[in-house]
Amino acid sequence: MSQFSEDFQADLRDLMRWRRDVRRFRPDPVDEALLQECLATFALAPSVGLSEPWRIVRVESPTARAAALTNFEAANTAALDGYDGEKARVYSGLKLTGMREAPVQLAIFCDEATDKGAGLGAATMPEMRRYSVVAAITQFWLYSRARGLGLGWVSILDPDRLCQDLDIPEDWALVAYLCIGWPEEESAAPELELAGWEQRRHHVPVETR
Amino acid sequence: MSQFSEDFQADLRDLMRWRRDVRRFRPDPVDEALLQECLATFALAPSVGLSEPWRIVRVESPTARAAALTNFEAANTAALDGYDGEKARVYSGLKLTGMREAPVQLAIFCDEATDKGAGLGAATMPEMRRYSVVAAITQFWLYSRARGLGLGWVSILDPDRLCQDLDIPEDWALVAYLCIGWPEEESAAPELELAGWEQRRHHVPVETR
Predict the structure, then answer these.
(1) With b meaning 16 or more CB within 10 Å and e meaning fewer, what string describes A51-84?
(2) I need a labelling partner for B81 at 20 to 30 A (CA). Which of A16, A82, A110, B209 fits?
(3) Cβ contact A122:B154 at 8 Å
(4) d(Cα A202, Cα B116) in Å, to the nearest integer?
(5) Share of chain B above pLDDT 70, in %
(6) Beta strand extents in chain A (DSSP E only)
(7) Angstrom distance (rounded) from CA B65 to CA B70
(8) B191 touches chain A (CB under 8 A)
């Protein structure tokens, strides 16, 4: 028997429905205590062998933010060059980052060389360390959303360049660049769907062996 | 303002605290409607460019289950050979899989060649497709747990061998092998901590740039 009520289960489904990737933020600051409360969910995340390989870098200085934004702009221009015709037209109209507005910006890394956990569970699948970081980000995302914050995950970046620009230790791999703040608006539909880029599938593909 | 109550937020923190990786299952079957309700959370997960690259394979037949278990046993023996002394003694006493008991077993893949989303967000970081699958698994894990089910993620496997044994399409990459069922017991502490393998850190490492 679950200790969680049916109301909680329904609200959890609603939270997942409303989660969204947010790219449009109000300029209002995020209270530091609230941010810390959300970040605390990292310590509750599953990790392979209890390796807890997540490493978080707050991107705060004007220099660091400018380097990240320049990085995005170069990668985004290159990505646009890969599309033709209608797809290029739609792509160029998409808002794909909140990096110019988001009051909080976090680069999230995986320490590939951590001793913690002594490698348990990561011998045949070393990518499990990075997957542990993704699981932690997902929990942080859901909890931040439950507190009303918006979060956008930017992946249109050259990871090597970002690591160099932010002076990141050699063994850390970039997993995500997160923009966090108060959303301009709420929507149950993804921006990419509203903009006509792609539709959600609404079913889950399952096969049997 | 969040539409989610403080009670919900507190319960969500509790859910994350109680989630656990479950390796000890009761033999009772899992109701099919409940499993489908949990699987439906995949369709609510974030995915890069709305690529929704998750592909789920139910491992049901005795042949498929035997192949997966043999795969685990070989990888686990090889892993044990990598430890010495006290660490080897502790490792050999760990229960690292529920594959012998779990009524439901799912192999979760990422379709690396999907056209869906037209590659948006995955040009410089193609691993984002696999990360999208991990995010979906994390949501499924949390929701299944909220419904009282236990879930264990097995990564002590040779992924190439599993793909071959289960006749998986060439472009699909193994992300996770999940054991699902009713947990024998509840615990707020990870098995690896109780067994003396590794301790949780209880703080989240944050730096600033």
Answers:
(1) bbbbbbbbbeeeebbebbbebbeebbeebeeebe
(2) A110
(3) no
(4) 13
(5) 99
(6) 54-58, 104-111, 150-154, 172-181, 206-208
(7) 9
(8) no
Interchain CB contact of A182 with B (< 8 Å):
no
Strands A150-154 and A104-111: unpaired
Ordered alpha helix ranges (H), chain B = 6-18, 32-39, 62-81, 85-93, 128-146, 159-165, 191-194
The H helix count followed by the E strand count for chain A is: 7, 5
Please report, rounded to a whole number, the percentage of residues in chain B having pLDDT higher than 90. 95
pLDDT above 70 for A75: yes
Nearest to A12 by CA among B102, B9, B177: B9
**Is B140 in the A-facing interface, judged by CB distances under 8 Å?**
no
**CA distance linking residue A74 with residue A179, whole number of Å:** 18
Which pTM value belongs to this model? Answer: 0.97
How far off is chain A from B3, nearest CA to CA, in Å? 7
CA distance A84 to chain B (A): 12
C-beta atoms of A19 and B46 within 8 A: yes
> So what's the ipTM on this one?
0.97
Q: What token pair was written down for A23? A: 């790219």
Per the CB < 8 A criterion, the answer to whether B51 and B114 are in contact is: yes
Q: How confident is the model at residue A9 (pLDDT cuts 50, 70, 90)?
A: very high
The Cα A52–Cα A118 span in angstroms is 11
Give yes or no for A102 touching B (CB within 8 A): no
HSE-up (13 A, CA, CB side) for residue B117: 25
Burial class (CB within 10 angstroms; exposed 0-12, middle 13-18, buried 19+) of A152: buried
- Say if domain B20-186 classifies as CATH 1.25.40.10: no
